[in-house]
Amino acid sequence: MTTTHPTASPPYRITPPRILHAEWHKLRSLRSTWITVVSAVVMVLGVGLTMGATYTSGGGDSDVDTVVLSLYGSMLAQIFLVVLGILMTAGEYSTGMIRSSLTAVPARLPVLWAKAVVFAATVFTVMLTTSVVTFAAAQAFLHDTDQAASFTDPGVLRALVGNAGALTLMGLLALGLGALLRSVPGAIGAFIGGVMIMPEILGMLPYDVVERAIMYFPTQAAGALGSATPIPGTISPGPALLALTLWAGVTLAAAALTLKRRDV
User: Fold this and answer.
1) Residues 177-221: pLDDT tens digits?
2) Residue 29: partners with Cβ closer than 8 Å, 6 or more residues away
3) What is the DSSP letter of 8?
4) Residue 160 lies in a domain
5) Which residues form the domain of 235?
6) Which of 97, 77, 96 is nearest to 36 (CA)?
7) Residue 129 falls within a domain, yes or no?
8) Which of 8, 62, 191, 229 is the most exposed place for a label (fewest CB within 10 A)?
9) What domain count does the chain have?
């Protein structure tokens, strides 16, 4: 009589929650993560408080949107979040850590998706909290000026959420560039040249179609998302969100294709 024994299940299984947990552990255990995130928060909060404390009614910034005025520091914070996104992918290639990650997850693509999800959730949560706190703190100085506003005013909450979403999507675009180019300096250079400088150069061309197309570039779309009132020369928040999502999505898709086809 033959006795059959049940097949023992492996002690560890590769599951999406475990991959997400691994990527979250890597993100929060790196010193560079804390440096870049704290720097981004300090920039938004510090500039917001400075703008609020030094603002006087009727000055040169009186026509600036209230949310934009309070969150001027987001433009500087974006630089730190872009670097964080690039380090999260290209940084692993520079250290060789990517070999261990892909050995543990042979399917490869779940690693990239997990990085994107962990990055997006972390950055959006932190920057939304920072945006809300900064706006409230700035209004403590602006309450008796022509820039006085509240969370219940039309477009304010949407702009605060939009600002956090724009910073998150810009970071995801950078994360995708890092995974695509596999080089920290290369990805930073590509972001600066392709995302920040190229629209300025194209804007010098005397063609209406080019001027219209530039409105859908990442930096221009991001600016439209963070304003409570329409900004002249920009698209509305809906198309801006769609455009920025597509930029990040296409970059991540290209990175996924490269990751699937190329050796580490």
Assistant:
1) 999 999 999 999 999 999 999 998 998 888 889 889 999 999 999
2) none
3) P
4) yes
5) 15-52+61-258
6) 77
7) yes
8) 8
9) 1
Tally Cβ neighbours within 10 Å of residue 172: 27
User: How would you class 202 by CB atoms within 10 Å of its CB: exposed for 0-12, middle for 13-18, buried for 19 or more?
Assistant: middle
* CA 253 – CA 243 distance, rounded (Å): 15
For helices 218-225 and 237-261, give the axis angle rounded to 10 degrees.
Answer: 140
8 Å CB contact between 124 and 132: no
Distance separating alpha carbons of residues 184 and 93, to the nearest angstrom: 9
For 64, which DSSP code? S
CA-to-CA distance for 68 and 121, rounded, in angstroms? 23
Give buried/exposed letters for 19-41 (b at 16+ CB in 10 A, else e): bbebbbebbeeeeebeebbebbb
Strand ranges (E), 45-196 = none
Q: Which two tokens stand for residue 122?
A: 């972390």
Cα–Cα distance, 28 to 22 (Å, whole number)? 10
Determine contact, residues 262/111, Cβ cutoff 8 Å.
Answer: no
Tens of pLDDT, residues 90-126? 999 988 888 988 888 888 999 999 999 999 999 999 9
- The answer to the question of residue 71 being in a domain is yes
Q: Does 10 map to a domain? A: no
Q: Supply the pTM of this predicted model.
A: 0.91
What distance in Å separates the CA atoms of residue 247 and residue 244, rounded to the nearest whole number? 5
Are the CB atoms for 40 and 127 separated by under 8 Å? yes
Return the structure tokens found at 136: 């409230």
